[in-house]
Amino acid sequence: MNKVVLSVFFLSSLLLGACKKKQPPQNPEIPVNLYTVKAKRVLYFDKYPSTTQALSQVNLLPQVTGAITGIFFKEGSHVSKGEKLYEIDKRLYEAAYDQAVANLQVQQGNLVQAKQDADRYEYLNKYNAVAKQQYDHAMIALDNAKNTVKAAEQAVKTAKTNLNYAVVYAPFDGTIGFSMVKMGDVVNPGSTILNTVSTDDPMAVDFLINEKQLPHFEQLQGPAASKKIDSLFTILLPDNTLYPELGYVQVIDRAVDPQTGSIRIRLVFPNPKKVLRAGMSCIVRVHNQDTGPQIVIPNKAVIEQMGEYFVFVAKDSVIRTHMDTVNHVTNPRPKMVAAQKKVQTGQTIGPNIVIKSGINEGERVVVDGVQSLHEGSQITTANKVAPSGRGGR
Questions:
Q1: 203, 233 Cβ separation under 8 angstroms
Q2: Which pTM does this prediction carry?
Q3: All structural domains of the chain
Q4: Could you read off the pLDDT of 201-220 as tens digits, one per residue?
């Protein structure tokens, strides 16, 4: 019996000891790495998604009906103003023009005859040698002949215009696209698009800014502002290479979009080598104008929550534990705790990011171990944390 009691007591002691070992220590300290905030001068560019646009672009539409009898350009090439691009079957329009010219000559002959008759009857009328009615008819015939000549002249102009419309010329210097019609296709006015021509030098680059930035960009408008500041406006091409030419603000849109609070800005860039083409996706870089020191911290320290950004900073705080009470500790040592702060972020510069507000120089920001923290977590730097490959953003 005594052996049974001793065995039960021994087993109970082992189970109790095992349970005590499994209990985690109270208020475990989370290992983190800290970064002391410093202000320094930085060079960076504000970046905006953008799209290249032609300053002028036009769809070529035929003004007369007919079959395409000539195409005189290479698709995708540069064309000059007045260059012959398409020819529509001119035979009907040449015939109509010749007929109008012939009709004009007939009417001009009729006018000569009417003028001679009117002069004769006017002379006879002075001496009352002709009936009044004949004189009046001669004057009316002269006026009708003059009006008929004018109508014939307008018909010649119309026929000449239609004949000229049978040939389509480039409206300005630019790049022409793929032809929408082929040889022999019949085209109709207002419904058939022949091609599209767009200007190619200079080129426009459009992007959107927040309405809060509008006063700043108004100060930068015009070529003169760009000349004062080196490399004020540059663009990154779709392959992420830097375009060698510099641009300037040509136009700021007339109104802000009330739904998004944004407004469109148009830059203009020289394009002598035709590198830029309409519709390209680029990145506009606006040279930083902040010359004073700025707070820059590692990007991985920033946490995004519901569109807002936060960091954890280390603060010294006196925390009285149960053991302090048991051991009668009257002045416990301060411990580090994590405090969450909302920040306003700026431009990303490589692995770092500019902080516009929310933290001050000299504060200690948690850069590794942020995923395990919450407000008031006890932290320690005694155990080094392997640097994280990415941040909370």
A1: no
A2: 0.62
A3: 26-42+292-380 (2.40.420.20), 45-55+199-287 (2.40.30.170), 63-88+168-196 (2.40.50.100), 91-165 (1.10.287.470)
A4: 999 999 999 998 888 888 88
